[in-house]
Amino acid sequence: MLLLTPEEMGRADRLAAESGIDSYGLMIRAGHAVSAAFLRLYPAALRADVLCGPGNNGGDGYIAAEALKQAGVEVALFHLGDPENLKGDARRAFQACSIDGKPVEDYRPAAGAVIIDALFGAGLQRPLSDALCMLISQVNEAAEPVIAVDLPSGISGLTGKVQGAAFSAAHTVTFMRAKPGHFLLPGREHCGRLDVFDIGIPQRILEEAGGGHHLNGPDLFASALPALTASSHKFRRGHLGVFSGGPSASGAARLSATAGLRTGAGLVTLAVPPNAAMVVANQVTAVMLKAVPDVAALDEWLEDKRLSAFVLGPGFGVGEKARAFVSALASRPLVLDADGISSFADEPDALFALLSGADPHCVLTPHEGEFARLFPDIAADDNIGKPEKARRAAERANAIVLYKGADTVIAAPDGRIAINANAPPWLATAGSGDVLAGIIGGLLAQGTPAFEAACAGAWLHGQAAKRAGEGLTAEDLPNHLPPLSGVS
Ligand SMILES: NC(=O)C1=CN([C@@H]2O[C@H](COP(=O)(O)OP(=O)(O)OC[C@H]3O[C@@H](n4cnc5c(N)ncnc54)[C@H](O)[C@@H]3O)[C@@H](O)[C@H]2O)[C@H](O)CC1
Ligand SMILES: [K+]
After folding, report:
1. Which residues, in sequence order, are CB contacts of 174 under 8 Å at separation 6+?
2. Which residues fall inside 5 Å of ion ligand 2, going by CB?
3. Strand pairing of 409-411 and 417-419?
4. In a domain, 313, yes or no
5. CA-CA-CA-CA torsion for 479, 217, 405, 190, nearest 10 degrees?
6. What are the binding positions for AMP in this chain (predicted)?
7. I need a labelling partner for 476 at 20 to 30 A (CA). Which of 163, 238, 427, 483 fits?
8. Whose CA is nearest to atom 24 of ligand 1?
9. Which domain holds residue 83?
10. Is residue 335 domain-shared with residue 227, that is, in the same domain?
11. Quick check: CB of 124 below 6 Å from ligand 1?
12. Has 123 been labeled as part of a binding site?
């Protein structure tokens, strides 16, 4: 699903105005969507306390306040700043509002009221003043329900970051398309339930204004998933190679291998150091085993061109061997995870050189710590959010970057960005990342392009966790993967 950044939404507004759409009409529909949400959600509320800011978000608030008054609701209205300074549509909305307001400094939350937060939306530019932070924390502590207009004030629609303080809303009513900040953390947790309301901007304008941000879901990758046909042969379904660590560290790779097989790879082989062969052989059945002691053995194995993708990293060990193996594998579809990433902490440029020049076919799956090891300057830049960090990293590495977390972001060097939001909290468990690497490897092995494989991997991983339920262990995940044929 296409998401629009606040900047892109502003562009959509301008394009809409240029094509003859009345911008005040958009504001009226936005305000009415908010008043309708209030009436639907809180029919027994004693009062609406409407807090209006100095821009068009405030304009939506004035429209909502007047509509609620007309519907018979008791409304208390509060302005931030002097409403005589309002401009354009917001000024018109203020003038059309028959309620006398007070300065927002006078506002005190009281029991039984529902607060409509129309202070700031897409136009939030800087951290809120101390006085506003104080007001917001009083409202949050009072725990009366808040309906946020467009975004909870204080949340950046671009990054999901809190600018000083932010309302914890029970509901957020946004317009036309959700924004990245509705799904990125901590923004997602401040939004409550999100409603996206159509105020009448045509789809073609939204697409023209929109860029690379998407909510991750089947619309991004379903058509690139492998289809199982009557003639599917196990070699046509690809052969995934997963590299294992030593005798006491093979569990992670076994989890990846099982996940790769469950995702539909025709064959999966665990490549093991010879001293781990017996241990691993005792633990696997459908997964095959191959002793690969060193780079020479790896080069020989790689002559088999039916080997269609690889996973390296889980439990592999950090160091020279990992670097040498990656250098042998760099031209093939590869998921580089965990120790495979950390092995390049001292020389990330060596990894980027290996991956440069070709179509991106490697998926890097760093969590926050691993991301900072490979991209220290990008990780430390507080001026940009997670999607932009992932995008810059993908561009630098010429790889798909799947930046893990409760709000995993997947980015491609060409600027495509997907924000994944289907992972339940109980997915954060030991070995979960190894399973994710295996799912992506299984899809790469079947010929799914790297960006789509990474998006599908993150989404399938989240779905498997939901199906397995709370209390799952990583071993449960592969058994709960939904069938690919049902993903649409
Ligand atoms: N197509 C749509 O989605 C429509 C959206 N509408 C609403 O319009 C707002 C965006 O309006 P805009 O005027 O651009 O921005 P804001 O109202 O969010 O705020 C701008 C206003 O606030 C000042 N400001 C910014 N940051 C701060 C700060 N930290 N402290 C103090 N003041 C700040 C800034 O200088 C401006 O004066 C969108 O969210 C929707 O709610 C339309 O109504 C309909 C079309
Ligand atoms: K708001």
Report:
1. 150, 151, 182, 194, 195, 196, 197
2. 117, 121, 148-149, 153
3. antiparallel
4. yes
5. -120
6. 404-408, 433
7. 238
8. 124
9. 6-211
10. yes
11. yes
12. yes
